[in-house]
Design brief:
single chain; about 5% strand; elongated
C-alpha cells in the first residue's frame, strides 16, 4: 500500500518569513516602547567599546533593562553593519536589517516548534499550526519589533518545544528558561519554574492531552505556555 504523503514543510517556513517581511516593510518605523532596545543595538554596533557614548546614560528609562537581547542581535547583524558602513548607506537600512534578524530568530524557533508538533500530532496539525500562526496579526507583526517580549519569544518558544516533547528538562534548557526570565520575569508564576533535571513526564494521560492541546492552541495564538501553567 502506498505511503500517505505529508504536507511539505519548507513552503510553510517560507510563509512565516514572507508574512513577517511584509509586516516589516509595510511598517518599517518604530514606536517609543521599542526605542531602548533598538538604540542599544545601535550603540553596540556603532559605538562598540566606547561605553560613554551609549544613549542609556542620558536616557536610562524608568526600569532597569538587560542588554542581552540587543547584544545577541547585534552579533548576528554585525557583518551587514560593517558592509553598510563601508558603503556609507543610511542607518535606516540597518534598522530594517536588525529587525529582520530578530524576525528570522522568531520564525526559526516557531519552525522548530512546528517540527515537534509534527512529530507528536502529524503533518496536518503541524501545517494548521503554521497557517494559524502565520495568520495571527500580532505574532507576525511584533516578530520584528525590538520589544522585551519579542526578545523573550524565541527563548520561550524553545522551552515550549522542550516541554511539548514531554521529557526531562536538562541543565541547558533550564538555563534557557532562566534567560527567558531576564526579559519577562513578571509574567511567570513561581510555581511553574523547573530546576535542572525536573521531570516533566510525571503527569496523567488526561493532563498530557490537556497540556498538548494547550501548547498547540495557545502557541498558535502567540501566547506563552510553561507546563500546565499559561503565561497570560
Amino acid at each position: 500500500m502506498a505511503r500517505k504523503r505529508g504536507f511539505p514543510e519548507f513552503p510553510l517556513f517560507l510563509l512565516f518569513m514572507l508574512v513577517a517581511a511584509l509586516h516589516l516593510l509595510a511598517c518599517p518605523f518604530t514606536k517609543v516602547e521599542e526605542s531602548f532596545n533598538l538604540q542599544a543595538v545601535h550603540d553596540i554596533l556603532y559605538h562598540r567599546l566606547d561605553f560613554e557614548e551609549y544613549d542609556h546614560h542620558e536616557f536610562p528609562g524608568v526600569v532597569p533593562r538587560t542588554f542581552l537581547g540587543p547584544l545577541f542581535i547585534s552579533a548576528l547583524s554585525a557583518p551587514m553593519a560593517g558592509l553598510l558602513s563601508f558603503l556609507e548607506a543610511p542607518k535606516f537600512y540597518m534598522q530594517i536589517i536588525v529587525r529582520g534578524v530578530l524576525g528570522l530568530c522568531v520564525c526559526l524557533t516557531l519552525w522548530n516548534m512546528q517540527k515537534e508538533v509534527r512529530r507528536q500530532f502529524g503533518s496536518l496539525v503541524a501545517s494548521l499550526f503554521c497557517l494559524i500562526s502565520a495568520s495571527q496579526f500580532h505574532l507576525m507583526f511584533y516578530s520584528t519589533r525590538t520589544l522585551p517580549n519579542v526578545f523573550a519569544l524565541p527563548v520561550g518558544t524553545h522551552d515550549l518545544e522542550s516541554f511539548a516533547g514531554i521529557h526531562i528538562l536538562d541543565g541547558t534548557e533550564a538555563g534557557a528558561l532562566h534567560l527567558f526570565l531576564c526579559f519577562r520575569h513578571h509574567r511567570v508564576p513561581l510555581r511553574a519554574l523547573p530546576s535542572a533535571r525536573t521531570p516533566v513526564a510525571d503527569v496523567t494521560s488526561i493532563q498530557e492531552a490537556q497540556y498538548s492541546t494547550a501548547v498547540l492552541l495557545r502557541c498558535a495564538c502567540g501566547d506563552f505556555v510553561i507546563g500546565p501553567h499559561c503565561l497570560c
